[in-house]
Amino acid sequence: MSSRVVVSKFAEKQLNRLPVNIQESLQYWADSVEWLGIREVRKYKGYHDEPLKGLRDGQRSIRLNRSYRAIYIEAADGIEILVIEVNKHEY
Questions:
Q1: Whether the predicted pLDDT of 75 surpasses 90
Q2: First vs last Cα of the chain: how many Å apart?
C-alpha cells in the first residue's frame, strides 16, 4: 500500500536553506514512500528510520545523510506521511 508524503510549510522553509543534496535525498525518500509504501521503505537500513521518544513520542526520524535528518508523523491509516521538520542532527 503506497502512501502520500506532504511537507509542512515549516519543513519546506528549512529545506530551502539546505544544500541541494539534502533536498534531493528527501525527495528520493518521498518518491520511494509514494511508490512502495512507508512499511516497505522502513526496511531500508540506510534511512535508519526510527521512532522518537520523550517530547517527540509518536514521531519518527530518517537520516538524509550523516548530519541531517527529517522528522515525520504518520496518519493512523498509514496513507499520509507529514514531514514536519528537517534539521541538523546533533550527536
A1: no
A2: 34
